[in-house]
Amino acid sequence: MNLKRPFPGMWRFPTNPEICCIYRVPDCPRSVNPEAYTPQLLLIGPLNHSLKSQAFKSPGDVTYTMSTGYLNMEECKKIYLAEFTRRVVGGENTIKLILRTLERGREKTGDPIMDMPCLEVIVKSDLMLLENQLPYFILEKLFDPVVPKFQKLIINYFNFGGKIGNKSKFRHFTDLFRCVRVETLQGLPPRKFKLIEHMYNAVKLHSGGVKFEAVENEYSLYVRFENGCLKMPCFVVHDHEERILRNIMALENCHYPYEAHVCTYMIFLDYLIDTEKDVDMLVEKGIIRNWIGQHSLVAEMVNKLCVGIMDNGSYCSDTSVEVNAYYSSPFNRSRAVLKRVYFGNMWIGTATVAAMLLLLMTLVQTVASIIQVKQK
Known about the structure:
Keywords: Membrane, Transmembrane, Transmembrane helix. The protein is mainly alpha-helical. Helix content is 48%, strand content 5%. It folds into 3 domains: 27-185, no CATH class; 202-331, no CATH class; 345-375. The protein is built from 17 helices and 5 strands. The chain has a 3-stranded mixed beta sheet with strand order 1-3-2, covered by helices on one side. The longest helix has 30 residues, at 346-375. It starts with 26 loop residues before the first helix and ends with a helix.
């Protein structure tokens, strides 16, 4: 096997990770759900010509630019190959579309994308696909001098205002979606990255006394276990969630293999969810908000998300060890069983308390009778 031979998704000159940031999705995750990586309305970027299987014959990636005289980046020309000088496909129109979307009113414009919000949702979804990207530094070089607060405009277009710093660095729109999530881990104490060898599902953990608490931040990745309570961010499942997560996870596997924090979180969630019963319980606890229908669909989505994803260690590994240890404790499990059997709901709890009071009164009466007999 020739290890020097380029393969699909490999850059011709992989020397600068700031520039080499757009990849073809590997075959294994793509085969699970090809539509999740395929644009529906908008085609841009260096890989727009290679959305079908035959495009994998190309050894390198080709992009275009509108203004090489302004950019004047020789290294970029090497990486993006000979046709660099031609054009950035759809780049200018994409920014125009974003500007018009942010400035539009309620009146009809004659533009279907402007007049039909359902199409705008699809366009936004297309703009974050890994294979449908332009390097952000190109857009920044071209538009930052002429569009005031260009990065803030981009952030607001994707509804991330206030959720990410205006000076945050991202390499393209897919990376922006990742940054919004990864920045929630900043400032946390360092953790050891190890593989999660095993963890019980949510129903088993709950039956063993583990409590679940939702943290109201749908983009957070922070998971912790404190005093028998597993605290997790609220995972909102909507129509485009699988598409978003699949492309972020593909980016992490290709570009951030040892900082794959979104992959790590989804692997952790995959351990918790085996069947729709686990989803039922997590929905009840507020950990999951299901906007796509049956809970079985959520279980299927989560279980398939990690197919073909490389696991190089998880920041959740320590948490999984703590959770398993808590579940394995006989004392914790016995206490959980007693609580579930005798205080499972208000009526059972009331009946249990009434029975205990009756037993106590009977005991007091018996002791009083014995004392009275002894006195006589």
